[in-house]
Specification:
alpha/beta; Rossmann fold; 7-stranded parallel sheet; 3-stranded mixed sheet; 12 strands; globular
Length: 331
């Protein structure tokens, strides 16, 4: 039986995807670095291929005998001491794995992009897969790197016959966010009572397991060259934080901070991270700049063409809070 290779399998989305693929009877092989944290997949029946997106030979070896590829690996950070790392992983790494898949004769690929690559509407109405956008609209290195990576995949589809379907997850939340991601940290801070205030913004939230199911649906029903938004419900940040507070027994935030007040705080947070060689700051300049727009999206194309049907987002937030608590993140 031919194998299915998954990159990013140790992460939140990737580990959810691996579980869906195993349940669908795929013979799963995962690409991991020697230093990857394996907690999310250590109990799963998968074959491990050691390698790195920067090591083309390791990618060729990992894809031997594979007829399918899910490329879910990405460097998801809104602040990085060395921004070039995001481009190396998200752009160059994507080109490397796609070229290796072409060389190996892989028959079907699902590429995990992001709604970060999509256009937004000034009036806050939900954007879709065809909303106009350019590279100049991308705020920050993460969004720019994902935009450029998706452009490379589209170029390879058109020019080299890459058999890839593109999915654009919105804001996944749920269990197994071990790092956690910027989104997970937002939920965690609210669950631990560390979010007394909010800014006026909006996100599209979705359960990470529904994003994983959307990948499988894209593999089975998606059209090569098309992209599909895998999202859930559009919510204001106040609504999100209030729901997390309800689930976790915390007080909901009542103070709305203007963006222009938060921006200097973000600059100071980044400066402190630089000076102390510390972790990613909780408030980032790119995060504040992004929050000035409502990041709302429509999932109607995925519903219509893939049969995608995500669960209520309250379940996603509940599962995320319970997982963080069970694993001692609020301690």
């Amino acid at each position: 039986m031919a194998a299915t290779l998954v990159t990013g399998a140790s992460g939140c989305v990737g580990s959810a995807l691996v579980r869906k693929l195993i349940a669908a009877a795929h013979q799963v092989r995962v690409l991991l670095r020697p230093t990857s944290d394996r907690r999310n997949i250590e109990s799963l029946p998968v074959e491990v291929a050691l390698g790195d997106l920067a090591d083309k030979n390791s990618l060729e070896r990992a894809l031997e005998g594979c007829n399918a590829l899910f490329h879910a690996a990405a460097d998801y950070r809104l602040w990085a001491r060395h921004p070039q790392q995001l481009y190396q992983t998200n752009v160059a790494g994507t080109v490397n794995i796609m070229q290796a898949a072409l060389n190996a004769g892989v028959k079907r690929i699902v590429y995990t992009s992001s709604v970060a690559t999509l256009g937004l509407h000034a009036d806050g109405s939900p954007a879709d897969e065809n909303s106009p956008v350019t590279l100049n609209d991308m705020i920050g290195h993460y969004k720019r790197s994902k935009f450029l990576a998706e452009a490379e995949v589209k170029r390879m589809i058109a020019g080299q016959g890459l058999p890839a379907v593109i999915v654009n997850p919105s804001t996944p939340v749920g269990p197994r966010d071990i790092r956690p991601t910027p989104t997970g940290r937002m939920v965690l801070d609210a669950a631990c009572g560390r979010t007394p205030a909010y800014v006026d913004t909006g996100l599209n939230l979705v359960h990470v397991d529904d994003v994983a199911q959307g990948h499988l649906l894209a593999f089975e029903r998606g059209v090569v060259g098309e992209r599909y938004i895998l999202g859930g419900r559009n919510m204001t940040l106040k609504e999100i934080l209030t729901e997390v507070a309800r689930i976790s027994g915390q007080k909901p935030p009542r103070v709305r901070l203007p963006h222009n007040l938060v921006l200097p705080i973000a600059y100071l947070s980044e400066a402190w991270a630089w000076l102390t060689n510390g972790p990613e700051p909780r408030a980032t300049v790119d995060g504040v700049r992004l929050s000035k727009k409502y990041m709302f999206f429509s999932i109607e194309k995925a519903r219509r063409e893939l049969g995608y049907n995500p669960r209520p987002v309250e379940e996603a937030l509940k599962d995320a809070v319970e997982w963080f608590r069970a694993n001692g993140y609020c301690g």
